[in-house]
Design goal:
Blueprint lengths: L2 H13 L8 H14 L10 H8 L13 H44 L3 E2 L24 E9 L13 E11 L4 E6 L29 H13 L5 E6 H10 L3 E5 L3 E3 L2 E3 L2 E5 L1 H9 L11 H19 L4 H14 E3 L3 H12 L6 E5 L2 E3 L9 E3 L1 H11 L29 E2 H6 L9 H13 L2
Helix pairs in contact: 6-7, 6-9, 7-8
Length: 450
């Protein structure tokens, strides 16, 4: 090696000390590359950046930071991964929503089809001439006609294919007032020819000329005669009450008086009734000592059953509901859809007993009609009852507007005998073995004044 080259090498070594683990040549190459990129690193001589800071003679101008090709490729891959991940998440979310939609839609379809919606026909708008009877204020409430249809006949084997409406219950649910009013209409109420040869209101359904809309014929009569709007209906096969009670494992009912007929007997007091005993209690009207007023006392007894049923339904479990599903599917028909039924059920179950009122159409025992025993609507008392409980004060109905036939009577008027459900609940509340809620209702009676 020559002296000049050796000196140059010595100077280079002095100026560019090697990086640990790398040769001096590698250090020089990296320093030169950094200088060319303008990245602010030290030059090979190590003086440009330092001199500028110390002397201030050269003003530093920062060059823009441009990413390298490798960095650009890395950033592109990251953005693509983020977009791909976002698309995958949306796809998964849409699939979940689709599955849930199909599942809930299928469940809705299945449950909805458990109810026999509209098979008894459709309700039509009120006939002309009833506009003055039905106040507009009542359209904000839910007005339902509940019918218990008896298909039994004198032939114990064959069922009556049409049946008669032995239970007629007008129900108004006022969601705003959080209240419910029920009106019982006696099955033997005289209506004339529209009720068939017997002339009773329970014959309108069976004798309807419109065989596809028998319920509508009865609803139109009630609206036109008493000025009560009806938007929906529920029909119940009377035989289903027996099955409902049995599927509940029996229902605890207060029997107001001992009764006996046809080999069946019920003792006064709290009794857990099975289906057959409950059916006897609901139908019994021929024991003169227990039900001297016949059908009127039968309707009074049914109020105790309604109270017991409300009490039992409020404690129903999911298992109870599953057990009742076949009964609902086979025995119940309605114009309400599934959502409306759920809303109705939720509303009714949250109404306190003190806000549930039940009364009966005022009637008097009439002279025989075509040889049949009938009850004649007491028009004046009926008008007073309707104005007090079922009509707005601004639009009362008069006795002359009640459209039932005039007919001779042979008894005093039997009034509406209005009671709140709290009173019915409290009946027998002081007896031994009374349910806790009945005892509580009995204790609360003096305070509520119900």
């Amino acid at each position: 090696m020559s002296a000049g080259r050796a000196a140059g090498t010595a100077r280079g070594d002095a100026q560019r000390p090697p990086v640990q683990g790398h040769s001096s040549q590698t250090a020089v190459t990296r320093s030169a590359s950094a200088a060319r990129r303008g990245g602010g690193s030290r030059s090979a001589a190590g003086t440009v950046y330092g001199a500028s800071r110390s002397a201030g003679a050269v003003r530093r101008t920062s060059a823009p930071q441009y990413p390298s090709e490798a960095q650009r490729r890395t950033g592109t891959r990251r953005r693509k991964k983020r977009r791909s991940a976002g698309r995958t998440f949306l796809k998964v979310l849409l699939c979940i929503l689709l599955v849930l939609g199909i599942s809930f839609g299928g469940l809705y379809w299945y449950v909805s089809n458990l109810f026999n919606v509209g098979e008894m026909g459709q309700l039509k708008p009120a006939q002309s001439g009833t506009e003055d009877l039905v106040p507009e204020e009542l359209t904000g409430t839910m007005n339902i006609l509940v019918l218990g249809i008896d298909y039994s006949s004198e032939d114990a084997v064959q069922r009556d294919p049409i049946g008669q409406t032995d239970m007629i219950l007008y129900v108004r649910v006022d969601g705003a007032a959080h209240s419910m009013m029920m009106l019982q209409i006696p099955r033997d109420t005289l209506v004339g020819e529209i009720g068939g040869s017997a002339g009773k209101i329970n014959g309108i359904f069976a004798n309807s000329a419109d065989t596809e809309n028998r319920v509508n014929t009865l609803a139109q009569y009630i609206t036109g005669t008493f000025g009560l709007p009806i938007e929906n209906y529920v029909t119940i096969d009377m035989d289903s009450l027996r099955e409902i009670v049995d599927r509940f494992g029996g229902i605890e009912v207060y029997i107001p008086v001992s009764m006996e007929y046809g080999g069946s007997r019920l003792e006064q007091g709290w009794r857990t009734l099975d289906g057959n005993a409950c059916e006897f209690f609901l139908r019994q009207r021929k024991d003169a000592s227990a039900t001297p007023r016949g059908d009127i006392d039968r309707l009074a007894n049914q109020q105790y059953f309604y109270s017991a049923l409300f009490r039992r339904v409020r404690t129903a479990t999911v298992g109870d509901i599953i057990k009742l599903t076949p009964v609902v599917e086979y025995y119940i028909n309605t114009s309400l859809n599934f959502v409306e039924l759920v809303q109705l059920g939720m509303s009714v179950l949250t109404i306190p007993s003190a806000n549930i009122t039940i009364g009966r159409l005022p009637v008097a025992r009439g002279e025989l009609y075509n040889g049949m025993d009938v009850m004649v609507c007491a028009k004046q008392e009926t008008a007073e009852f309707l104005n007090a409980y079922l009509r707005p004060a601004s639009e009362p109905i008069s006795a002359s507007q009640i459209g039932t036939p005039d007919w001779p009577v042979r008894s005093e008027v039997i009034g509406a005998e209005v009671r709140r459900m709290g009173e019915v609940d409290a009946a027998g509340g002081g007896d031994v073995g009374a349910p806790q809620d009945a005892a509580q209702a009995a204790a609360a009676q003096p305070e509520t004044g119900a």
